[in-house]
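Schema walk-through. Below, the input block comes first and the output block second. Nothing else is stored per chain. Lengths vary across the set, and this one has 157 residues.
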Amino acid sequence: MTVLLFLSSVITANTLQDNILGHWVCEPYKKYLTDTVYFNVEIDSYFYDDGTGFDIQTWKYSVEEEQIWFSLKLTGPWKLKDGVLIETTNEESILDTSDRIKELPNFNVKEVFKSLNDTVYPLNSKSEILTLSKSAFISKKLSDGEIVSCVRGSNNG
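--- output ---
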């Protein structure tokens, strides 16, 4: 019986590992600065079989008829342990910004991002995997209980 339980856990771990590989497009969420001021955040995640991966995050803020935004690439290793996805961000790079941000001489995207996330690098993010199949990936962030829902992306980055 013990051998069967062990084999079952190995098979489950390997299935999770295989299913998570590739490109995922996650539902946008709101990152609140105050009760009424927030960024809409869009995330595409990429996981590779060598244990590396990255997120492409686009942060959008609309005020009146103007929208400012920036896109970042967050890179680092990931692993699965006991049904928990552990991602470590070692580096972030700015991919693009709206023209309005480019016009603001003192706007530092990396500093704004770090302040929005209380970020100290390397950043470790842990999420309990609720559902993971070839087409759906739903997790719960252990830091704040937020549910993140993703679907399989069209390519593998």
